Amino acid sequence: MNRAAVIAGVGGFVPPRVVTNDELAQRLDTSDTWIRSRTGIAQRHVVEPGTTTSDLAAEAGRRALKNAGADGADLVIVATTTPDRPCPATAPTVATRIGLTDVPAYDVAAVCSGFVYALQAGTAAVTSGFAERVLVIGAESFSTILDPSDRTTSVIFGDGAGAVLLRAGEHDEPGAVRDVHLGSDGAMADLITVRGGGAEERSRGEVPRQEDRYFRMEGKSVFFAAVRRMAESSRTVLARTGWEVADVDRLVGHQANTRILHAVAEQLGLPPERAVLNIDRVGNTSAASIPLALADAMADGLLRAGDRVLLTAFGGGATWGSATLTWPDLPVG
């Protein structure tokens, strides 16, 4: 079918509780200066006890539908590393909370690349004719899997959700997703991981180790792998789209670390001011970071109808991916 998936609405949501660098410094061997200099983060939002990933995802989904002036969707895809439960998936719960009954709904697990993976799946559903409207959500309660004593991860991650509504449309209209590139390398699985809780641990029949419950990351290795893979993937998707690097108006990368985002822009030869940044306000929200950055950039007036936008991400797995699209004319608020 000769049709495109077009972004019809965007929504973002973060929990109200704010944790500043100074608050973290009271219990960790760190400081506001140390955190800002290495990550660019000033604060992050975290869920209160009893708030779940599905709570965040449902609110972001509602906001995307409202922004689009739509009353529903034919498919819901939730990208998350922190599902409400190991079983079942979180997406059916989210769909029901939004009022979308009897529609297919499933989760995507690609950690920080999750939104780009879910965007590809949603785009394919629309372009194939499987669905007319797809709600693609990235949502994380990452604070629930962090070791509170580990300053290397506790200072980086935050909680939140972002969503886009895709609709069937034309390839040449603003909002159309032009192309998506994805990749993975399981040899890097240990770089970004939660070792415990899965079949690997349970099949050993051993007493679970407390430390395996928490998220772990090899920061230095991740930095170099992320910059390399995001830049390579970006070049690939730009070539497939038929765009030059100079054609890109906005780079919206996974908000992993300010230094990573600037390094990717430098590798591509993009001026750093074209990179959208909101990590200083929300931290690294994993699968939620790109749609949250889109929502914030739209609210800040940084995205204009017709802008050529490059999305790129790197996450656990390892996984990576990039996408190109033109920005639609959407109402703000």
Q: How would you characterize the overall build of this protein?
A:
With 333 residues, the protein is α/β, with parallel strands linked by helices. It has two domains: 4-169, Thiolase/Chalcone synthase (Peroxisomal Thiolase, Chain A, domain 1), CATH 3.40.47.10; 177-326, 3-Layer(aba) Sandwich (Peroxisomal Thiolase, Chain A, domain 1), CATH 3.40.47. 32% of the residues lie in helices and 23% in strands. The chain contains eleven helices and 13 strands. It has helices spanning 21-25, 32-39, 53-68, 91-98, 114-127, 151-154, 199-202, 219-241, 258-268, 279-282, 289-299; strands at 4-13, 18-20, 43-45, 75-79, 105-108, 133-140, 160-169, 177-184, 192-193, 216-217, 250-253, 308-315, 319-326. Strands 1-7-6-4-5 form a five-stranded mixed β-sheet, with helices on both faces. The protein has a four-stranded mixed β-sheet with strand order 8-13-12-11, with helices on both faces. Strands 2-3 form a two-stranded antiparallel sheet. Helix 3 packs across helix 4 (91-98) and helix 8 (219-241) runs parallel beside helix 9. The protein starts with a strand and ends in a 7-residue tail after the last strand. The model has no long low-confidence stretch (mean pLDDT 96).
